[in-house]
Amino acid sequence: MDGGAVITEEDFITSVADALQYVSAYHSPDFIRALADALEAEESPAARDAIRQILISSRMSATDHRPICQDTGSANIFVELGVQAPIRWTRSLQDLCDEATRRAYLAEANPLRASIVADPIGMRKNTRDNTPAMVQVEVVAGARVDVTVSAKGGGSENKTKFAVLNPSDSVADWVVETVAKLGAGWCPPGMIGLGIGGSVDKAMAMAKKVLNDPLDIAQLRARGATTPEERLRLELYDRLNKLGIGAQGLGGTVTVLDVKVATFPTHAASLPVALIPNCAATRHAHVSLDGSGPARLDPPDLSLWPDLGGAVAEGRRIDLDALDQPTLDSLRPGDRLLLSGRLFTGRDAAHKRMLDYIARGEALPVNLRGRAIYYVGPVDPLPGEVIGPAGPTTATRMDKFTPGLLAATGLKLMIGKAERGPEAMQAIREHGAVYAVAVGGAAYLVSKAIRAARCVAWEDLGMEAIFEFEVRDMPVTVAVDTQGASIHRTGPEKFRR
User: Do 324 and 259 sit in the same domain of this protein?
Assistant: First the structure.
């Protein structure tokens, strides 16, 4: 390296900002190959359709450089700082990472959704630029600064689990039992990251970082395991896929694409285990700085994606402007629908505010009687777009609001992702409503079905405001029917081995 080379603050900021923009639109080649293999191996028609939609949407995102998922995630930045790296920085590493995040998420050419809220136990006001970044730093040997960035969505992050097992306990058994209880909110198929050993904080940090390793389970299966970590990976890969959870929890033979394991020495009395899932919107990239200027990332070749066309699978067409009880009663779990007409959007904040209005006896700003609501927080549109990527959020977060909302408004159709809990299931059955799922990880594809969009209430909530969408042939699958039957129960039961 040239003795006069310097890694400047601007080189670092530019490289990290570019990497965050890069991962918003591009799956890594190893993930594309693994998902294409999963499509070939999957036995469940519903799960195959979900994987197909994810792959089609992924290629569309890469072509147009638009977000893979509407949840463009928190910015997770892992920095390995060489002790001999020629840095001339005056600002803190957190400040540099925050500036890079701000640039990436506010970029005019591809604005990303700001999801970070300040004051987490107070007003939870959105920071509007997705800062602060979540930064991990390690000082290492060498003269380089290596950075891995990942965008971690809330759906998979919320399914993180941690336990301190007895040293004699089976890690594999705990992982299988834990994943079986996670539900589909983490948007399988994806990866499971495990941090084993160390301390409580060390195990969690290892589990998060190891998710950025390449997907290589196919190569490992071909050559065989040589370490305890590799043997655990192979055992868990087989056992987790035999759970029958499948893509989006619809039931199937492919639930995980890989299992990653990191270990560290630990106290003799302890066995800390951290489990973090990564969803079908897995997004990460690595850059290295040596003083020769900002890093460069080249887009993956479009030939990596299988040619699946651009159309979604066929389904029964439903007019959202003419929903009636006979139509709703005729729907069954697993039915594929193509929705057309008007629907409203609403997430946690909007649901809470609606219930507050109802409790005070105030009229809602929208009439939900006989209508549909979509649990989504879309990305802002570019000029010429109706809306940005608009995939579903996890429906279970709305469960506690569902009984009151159905009773007070006459709402009839809810659309989200993952299963519903007992409270919501009972309310759906009592009020003759239906719950359907859109494919998490196919946000850009879903957005193409939205032909008009306007904010109709509570703009102050940002991406959680209530919008009215006009949709045409929006693909969904019936998950819970008016009798309370659920595909998230019957699907996995069918494929469990």
Answer: no
